[in-house]
Amino acid sequence: MRKGRVTDWIMERLVAFCGVAIGLMVVGMFAYLSLESRYAFDRKFPYGYRIAAQPVSAPRSEAVEMDPNASVLTSHMDGMDGLDDKESIPMPTLAELQGVATLATGSLVEGELANIDPLMLARDNWQSWHDAGGQRKFLLFAFATPEHQDKSFVLRWEPDAAFDADLSVHNLRLKLIKAPAGIDAPAVDIDLRTRPRGEIELPAFIAKTDDERTQGYVFELESTPTGISAIGATLRGFFKTEWAPTTQYPRYGLMPLLLSTVIITILAILFAIGPALLTALYLSEFAPHRLREWLKPIIELLASIPTVVLGYFGLMIVAPGLMATVGRAFGMESGRSLLTAAVVMGVLTIPTIVSIAEDGLRNIPRSLRDGAEALGLTSGESIRRVILPAAKPALYAALLLGFARAIGETMIVWILSGGTPAMPTGVDALVASTRGIADTVGIEMANVEFEQPHYGHLFLIGLVLFAITIVCNLLGQRLARRAAWRS
Q1: Cβ contact 243:259 at 8 Å
Q2: Most-buried pick from 8, 22, 90, 426 (CB within 10 A)?
């Protein structure tokens, strides 16, 4: 008897130790992800505009970037080294513009307006980026050649490449700070955040010599802080709808990755719920005892199949099958899509749902079944009116734990989703390429620069996924405990 008490004491302490160890592991993982996420808040915030002087008669259908004489005024990471080819392109001379264009722009790369060094005049101006509290000014010169015949010209501007003025954390203004002598020019002071693209007509200034190129119109592109902190700006950008971390104007929007992950997981549960619940009902209500003892372990073993195997199964069988059946009707460009990933993910979740649902169904007291039989209910009526309502908490727990199992899956989504981090909108998104949180971390972590904002954002989205998984598991376990019947 004493030996049994000692054994019980040891087992109790061992169980308590394991529980504490697991809890500390979860807390440690959460703390580590949070710690590494801090680099996401070391962001710099680039911006850039293309500005061109064009004839009034020039077609407006063409973007400013198509004008070979347009100037790029930008502050981003490529401007840090001062070695870019565009920085070395000088502001066009009158001889270079002869017979080619009658209007041009240029920028003062370094120095002051009062003391202009001709060697510092370039077509473009690429500067290093700065944080949310930084500010900078760019000078832009606009002039016409003697070949220009019109009395006026238009100054057109638009955001550079992938820059979105709505996402900027700076106040950006384009101002006319010096008009040509003898010309009555209108005041120009444009808020580029509220008016990111447009044009303004101005009286023409003719530069008759190269020295006069800087005596015409002088504009200033000014960036000033909006007052938002780097943390606030990072969080605001984190909940946007575009993930493009490797562009000149990086975007770290979580929403397309999160929404794709949730949609894939929900569809997977919808695909799995029918076969899984029918299998659980068969095992608990109809299968002979000997057959159930064989089938239940086999189904649970299916959960141990490597997900990379399921991924290749989906790539070689499911993807071509979907292309051959619904792909052409719905315009599926490739078998790798959100729908394909969801179907194979559904296969992954079936063993989890079956196992937990079958346990919940078998735990229903025999007295409920006997009562249903005594009332004259058929097997189908007994299942529909008595057993399933009584097992509802257990079934919810099974679905929730299946959801938690699927939402963090990496390899299936990596192989089958297509790998495009696009915002899923509309029904067409089901057959389009997408990307989730887990596979984004797997794809990009190997090539990311250590302890930089991109690196920090990968840990930040991993932290979000970890938190969702923990919450789903805790809720599922709580429902499973509440579903336990006591005789």
Answers
A1: no
A2: 90
Number of compact structural domains in the chain: 2
Maximum pairwise Cα distance, the chain: 111
**Which one, of 185, 250, 214, 198, lies nearest residue 421 by Cα?**
250
The reply to whether 55 falls in a domain is: yes
Classify residue 36: in a domain, yes or no: no
The pLDDT, as a whole number, for residue 80 is 52
Strand-strand pairing, 152-159 and 198-203: antiparallel
Containing domain of residue 389, as a range? 254-482
Q: Which residue, 461, 354, 325, 339, is CA-closest to 412?
A: 339
Q: Which residues pair with 53 in a beta bridge?
A: 155
Residue ranges of the chain whose pLDDT lies below 70: 1-4, 79-88, 480-487
Would you say 51 and 175 are in contact if contact means Cβ atoms under 8 Å apart? Answer: no
The pTM assigned to this predicted structure is 0.85
279 and 138, same structural domain?
Answer: no
Q: Does 298 map to a domain?
A: yes
Residue 91: HSE in the Cβ half-sphere, 13 Å Cα cutoff = 26
Last residue of a domain, one of 229, 263, 280: 229
| Percent helix, percent strand, percent coil in the chain, to nearest 5 | 50, 15, 30
- Which residue bears the tokens 């066009």? 92
